[in-house]
Amino acid sequence: MRIQKIQPGETYNFNIIIGDQHSDFSEYAGPKSEYIKHRVANDKGLTLLTDGDTITMFQVLKKEEKTEHELIENARVAAHTIHKTLRDLDASSVSLVNNGVSSKQMLACLEGLWLTNYSFEKYFTKHDVPPFTLETTAVSCDKVTETDLVHLTIALEGTFFTRDLVNEPLSYLTATKLAEEMQEKSKEAGYTIEVFNKKKIESLRMGGLLAVNKGSIDPPTFSILEWKPENAINEKPVVLVGKGVVYDTGGLSLKPTADSMDYMKCDMGGAAAVAGAIYTISKARLPVHVIGLVPATDNRPDGNAYVPGDVIEMYDGSTVEVLNTDAEGRMILADALSYAKQYDPELVIELSTLTGSAHAAVGKYAIVGMGNANPATMDALKTSGFNTFERIAEFPFWDDFSELLKSDIADQKNIGGKYAGAITAGKFLEKFTDYPYIHLDIAGPSFNKAQDNYRGKGGSGVGTRLLFDFFRNRTS
Ligand code: BES
Ligand code: ZN
Ligand code: ZN
Questions:
Q1: 57 with 17: CB under 8 angstroms?
Q2: Cα separation of 412 and 121, whole Å?
Q3: Buried b (16+ CB within 10 A) or exposed e, 295-333
Q4: How far, in Å, is the centroid of ligand 1 from the Cα of 413?
Q5: How far apart are CA 299 and CA 212, in angstroms?
Q6: I need a surface site. Which of 85, 338, 357, 458 has the fewest CB within 10 A?
Q7: What is the C-alpha to C-alpha distance for residues 339 and 204, in angstroms, rounded to an integer?
């Protein structure tokens, strides 16, 4: 993947001229100016002109969109369509020329092209359809800086890392392998990582993580990723926590096979987003101290599996009555959130494919967010949600919801009942915190069973671009 500025004198065989309805394309259309003008006036979308070896494409982005965010999203979506044409033409290197749109729209076009270009090829032994072929994009736009392009490249690489992890099946990506993959990436990005093995987790008495792991033949892991540059602007770290359930069968409260278990390799989407975010932050050397915590295990039924009715002593010493072994995410996250207290964090953001309830409420269209951090922090995160189109729908986080978690025999039970399932999950987790806390339930947008525009099919990589944007804004 090469994303660069056009160097003077450089020419490309495939050129995409990007403007809006008011742009004058005659400079690029030559004798075909009238034709292009007509196409633009009639909103005909992408138009191609050929001249010898050179193919020029004209893309009009509509200006009448309601908000800047919609304008930018439309640029990504337009780029997804352009990618299909580039693929048909076997174009591997293309230039993008700004002819009257904003630098943000240009960057969004690049982002849409490259996010579309992703495919997960590892397990094909032969190709019916060849993999996508884009190798270089060169941009002509005065206002796009070198830093913009470096950051875009990093955001894309981080998102692809996240997607790869989510797309990996359990047959490869056990909890141990997940930790190893994060270790491998640390060498390139520069963050440090420590991985606790089962023995260490036992000695720490992380009861939630160990309970979920009881039905598994593979050991759990608990990974601590850290990026602590000398010029960090924050005194107290920001901690990111990600749910690393490498496969969720539901445990003894087994999920029905057909539609609810088939894609449960995606249940480490939160962990993958945290790994991707720490990758981007450290690769871009952002001046911010960030720690990532990733508890990981699979959730399976077995002879020794935890059962409904069990009472578990958690890492913080509190007790939980397990009434559904499929509510396992909160068991392992609770221990990670308690563990985070020792850092005296300024803020903790936790990401998880936590509830079917969040998925049912917003579909693939949003992250369900809630928390008790100050409203300005939540607003900044929501703004990043709009910037990246990884939008956050904020749910209430009133204390009343905790009533639903009262247990007859322990401090809390691990399910809240029929109503407000996404919120009771968040309230359950809040009990393990003593710092400003934001919970992001990504169950909806984490995995696409069908192609979803530039977000692709399979792991969408949600969370990584969101967090990178959030930290870039905090440090600029
Ligand atoms: N991993 C699932 C949630 C999920 C659902 C993720 C759909 C991605 C897509 C989670 O562990 C789970 O099973 N949650 C239960 C909780 C319930 C038993 C309280 C759910 O939402 O049904
Ligand atoms: Zn579950
Ligand atoms: Zn789960």
A1: yes
A2: 44
A3: bbbbbbbeeebbebebebbbbbebebbbbebbbbbbbbb
A4: 16
A5: 6
A6: 85
A7: 10
Q: 19-23, 109-113, 294-298: which range is least confident on average?
A: 19-23
In the DSSP assignment, the letter for residue 364 is G
Task: Find, among 76, 120, 121, 97, the residue nearest to 25 by Cα.
Answer: 97
Quote the pTM value: 0.98
Compute the distance from residue 155 Cα to the ligand 1 centre, in Å: 28
Catalytic residue among 39, 198, 214, 330: 330
- Retrieve residue 375's tokens: 């409203």
The span from the CA of 93 to the CA of 295, in Å, is: 41
The whole-angstrom separation of Cα 371 and Cα 373 is 6
Ligand 1 lining (C-beta closer than 6 Å): 248, 267, 324, 326-329, 353-357, 359, 415, 421, 443
Give pLDDT tens digits for 73-101.
Answer: 999 999 999 999 999 999 999 999 999 99
428: tokens are: 């359950």
pLDDT at 40: 85
Give me the catalytic one of 5, 37, 104, 255: 255
> What spatial distance separates the first Cα and last Cα of the chain, rounded to whole Å?
26
Which amino acid would we find at residue 107?
L
**255 given a catalytic annotation:** yes
DSSP assignment of 420-443 equals -HHHHHHHHHHTT--S-EEEEE-T
